[in-house]
Amino acid sequence: MLPGLTELELAHAEAELGFALPPDPRVVLAAGLPSGPGWAHPRGPPIVNSVMGMKRRMFKDLAPMLWYSFAQIPLYLYPFLNTTSKAKSFEYLRLASLNVIDALVKVDDTETVNFLVTSQVIPLCLPIMETDSELPKLVATSIARKIMLDASGLQYICATADRFFEAAMALAAMVSALAEQPSGRLLKHVVRYYLRLTDNPRARDALQICLPQALKDGTFDHCLQDDPATRCCLQQLLDNLGAPVGGGAPRPGGGGGAEKMEFMLVGSCSLQRARGTGKWTIDMMGPTWQ
């Protein structure tokens, strides 16, 4: 094992290669470089006879491999997000996995967002937002909202009625739970999620019909009395929708469906699915989602 790269050596090597490594691969390269068969050694061309030359060649060998390996880490966490057990051990596993992904979306990077969107992280977050305990809900909602701050993330959610209403149902379930057991830190993410959705014309039209009543009738006034920023976001949301006091709200589980069917009425949109399945059938009786 050879000594790792210094910050100056990393900077020179990145400039020579034309790209910058993210923090974690930099830590690995700074910790040490491998030696032995297959790796650069002193008996090479003149440029690698110096330690600096050897290190640069090592960087060229290792950097692409490390970049690819670290980029794929979220995919190994997705099966943990897909667990449904309510046992504390599984909840901690989901929370730890969510925290890793949340760290990724804290960096304002379209390439990262595109990777998470195309790898289907949002559908994994929605059930956690809807049914898990507060901390996993908080991190999952934060991830989905941060992804939507990027144009490609918002476009993904609003591209089809199916995707939009899956998100709307998860949010509606959260609002219903918050009305019974308020949490200011979770509510602020929910409000900002809704607010971001209003930047899409189709989503804004749908939310004019299906925004939960609890967000319009002052249910959360007490919860938000010490949070002027979220109160301002909620007022902006209502202004964007032109939402009057009163009106329809999603009613998860409502309706008088057959014994093996679940129904939801979202404004003028009827949704139904067989119990135990994840696929909702959407009957748009109001604005057409085109």
What is shown here, in short?
This protein has 290 residues and is mostly helical.
Beta content comes to 5-15%
Strands of the biggest beta sheet: in what spatial order? 1-2-3
Mean pLDDT: 75
Order of helices and strands: HHHHHHHHHHHHHEEE
The count of strands amounts to 3
Query: How many H/I helical runs?
Result: 13
Helix content: 55-70%
Task: State the end-to-end CA separation.
Answer: 59 Å
Low-confidence stretches: 40-51, 245-270, 284-288
Protein described:
The chain has 290 residues and is mainly alpha-helical. It has 13 helices and three strands. The protein has helices spanning 7-17, 23-31, 51-71, 73-81, 88-105, 110-118, 121-131, 134-149, 151-158, 161-180, 184-197, 201-210, 228-241, and strands spanning 261-266, 269-274, 281-284. A three-stranded antiparallel beta sheet has the order 1-2-3, with helices on one face. A hairpin with a 2-residue loop joins strand 1 and strand 2 (269-274). It is elongated, with a radius of gyration of 24 Å. The chain starts with 6 loop residues before the first helix and ends in a 6-residue tail after the last strand. The relative contact order is 0.07.
